[in-house]
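User: Okay, second chain of the day. Same drill as before: sequence in, structure tokens out.
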Amino acid sequence: MTEQAFLAQLNAIIEQSHLLKHPFYQMWNEGKLSLTMLQEYAKEYYLQVHHFPTYVSATHAACDDINIRKMLLENLIEEERGNAHHPELWLRFAEGLGVERTEVLERDYHEKTRESVCALKILARSEEPEKGLAALYAYESQIPEVSTTKIAGLQEFYGIDTDEALSFFRVHEVADEVHSQATQAALVQLCQTDEQKQHALESTQKAVDALNLLLDGVYETHCQ
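Assistant: Same drill. Structure tokens below.
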């Protein structure tokens, strides 16, 4: 499989199941979610944000290539450094919607949310680092566009416009553009055999399915 064909298949898998095609995000972009629906989403999605740095660190631990490890380390430091680490930024978003952070931290998460996190942990902890890298790419390649549309919807339909409430999305508009490009380059470098490329493609499909699974749970519970 050529590099070009590999990347084309990788991106086609992501595009086919892109998060912005999910009914929940479509309702968000059209202003059809109630504030309660957004609040429930904010509480539920925190589990994914909380665990995302562990996907990065697990993939880092599985990888032998020093340059790829350095890239992942920089990603991890951005996720968790300082008082404005990314889980904290998500809690500020929830507060901007009128949710107490204790409601988020003490949440009894949906089964599909827990399944989503579990699936991504399994991919990240694989002994084949291309699986973890592909899962990270499946997420990070979508987030800049998702973040832009979320900001627009929050401002236009819900009157949410404070820096505190929008900081998570504004950070990821930029950061994940850089991260996804670096992760894509690492995947190309790492996947030298057809077997490795196939591992990455299969992992990409599992990752996008897991990410959509969380939204399925929120949509089915609070929007139908």
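The chain has eleven helices and no strands.

User: Thanks, on to the next one.
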